[in-house]
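Case study B.
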Amino acid sequence: MTPVFHPMLVNAPSEDPCVFVDFLYNRRAILFDLGTLSGFPTRKILRTSHVFVSHTHIDHFIGFDHLIRLCLGREKRIHLFGPPGFADRVCHRLAAYTWNLVYNYDTDFTLIVTEIHPDGSGISSEFHCLRGFKAECVTECRFSGQIIHDEEGLLVRAVHLDHKIASLAFSLEEKRHVNIMKNRLDEMGLAVGPWLVKLKAAILRGEPGDTPIETVPMGGAAAIETRSLGELRDRAVRIVAGQKVCYVTDAGYTPDNAEKIIDLARGADYLFIETPFLDADAERATERHHLTARQAGELARAAGAVRVIPFHFSPRYTGREQELRDELERAWTG
Amino acid sequence: MVQIKRRLPFRYIEPAFFGGLLDDPLLFLRIRPLKRALLFDCGQIAHLAKRAVKPIDTVFITHAHMDHIMGIPTLVRHHHASPRPLDIFGPPGIAERVYHLLMGYDWNLSNPDWCTLRVHEIRQDRLLHYSFIGPEGFARRFDGEEPRSGREIWSCRYVTVEAELLDHKLPVLAYRIQERPHFAIDPRLMAQQGLMPGDWIRDLKSSVWNGRSESRIVVPRREGEMVREETADDPHTLYDSIGTRQPCASIGYLCDVGWTTENIAKMESFLNGLTLLCADCTFLAADVEKARASYHLCTADLNELAGRVTPRYLLPMHLSKSYLRRTEDLYNELRPPQGTTILPLPKHLVPAPLMVRDVEEWLRPPGNPTGRP
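Model:
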């Protein structure tokens, strides 16, 4: 299948944690954590629609201001999610600046901030550029089954891990993946093009088989040919399980954390998991409520993750990064 | 071949400007004898090397717009794991802004070795002091206030810093950094009094300069063919009569101010006779209306200001990004007075993330003048 999610680390693994997930055919991206963004291309950052922040230690949250600055003066809405107390942190970060010039902008950059509590409740608030980023529309909300965000094609789950403070781990899941078989389109005399986006959306919405779909025939003919959704679905489409990208950082190796991580990351196509310490320094890792590379590898193995990407290396291993990778690899492959 | 190192005429300070014409303004001043540095404004500083950030122990903020203070968390991050305090000076309200900047993060890992931020808020008539205590997760503490008389807000043995409040639709600070006089004897004045050089000059320096008064100063004075030794009455009177009186080098830092009558009068008296003036020049002359509306300077304003205060060097900075493709127009429009030299900046110093077109040149086959494939 042609994957929709294209995740990548924004910074080197020994630098600030931040994962950018680019979407195929859709000028959009989401971010896990907000480490420094200063070396990342602006045009990519501007695609961001949703940001999921594990916790607000400075290395996970310093990129917030950079994101805000780039979006100022643009008609954008960005959703941010974080652990308990998150809305307060955002409030403080925005109150750190003088905004006397924004009131007459002709765009209204807006932040929608949701904090997620372990009991499944949450608080969401809005911050509008045009009103100097003061908290408004504060409402309570509830989440079920760890699902904190749900839209047409995808959903995001979060679990609370213990890092002495709460740290969230996330999983981005494509609900189902619609594969278009190009050879079958050829047989049907149809050309590829933007009409396929509409077809995929209609299939994912579960629309009935007699729904008319406007298709474009091959050979550059301008004419539009209407076919039924059922015919297209049966002949040229295969529906498979969607992609899953999982992000786990800053958690101690406790039985409770381990269970939650394995459960969240089960069968993930990409598992981004922190490996700050070598197992030789396990005591230090426990003290700091972090994982070791071996522990991360074992969790990835237990979860059956397809790809594992280590990050958040402690600076003490500068020049020895390969040891962290090797230790993770050994524990993961068993 | 001998290379002469060209540098600006400062004795103790080494200025560096860490931004391009369109980047956030960042004036970095290293005080050479102390091996420490001052920073004026603190917008985006992620591009500074850790080695450049480490010596910074005092920051002077003009105002709390994002492009002038968003680098403070980065600064704190480089410093927090060392007990050396970090001082921040700023306009009214700065303590509140720093408080919010710090409370935007979780500091539960703080430990007794962390640094404390000392924030000094400069009001018209007084100075307010606050501490943000690192070992306590940057908890805020009010340390009291003192009346403010005169413009000086900071000094060390080599340099003083003065501040003046101006209007940018909100209070904004302009700064003047002044080198202190150094000990120097004018040989002509000495000869006029018939004084002969000798070890007594060292004693005089230790007395008037270093404040040691234990030794009597014996000066040899030529009288006709004779040299007579006599004890100087008062070392300070003696130094006053033979010391050189050269003006000391100075730097002005002026950012985000409106061209109002009151501001002009203050700038004229505060920024007179500078060695180097670093000045906001956000707009070209044709956009004077925008400059008036947003309380910034345009090139015509800066021309007039430079004509009034005649700095030896002028560094225009903080040009609006809307002039990205015509930055040279700024330099074409500036007409400094005789004796003032303009120091031009590149558009950007902050490295841009690379695009394919920036590097694609390198992977092209060599040129083929015949045009054959």
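Chain A has eleven helices and 18 strands. The remaining cases will be described in the next quarterly update.
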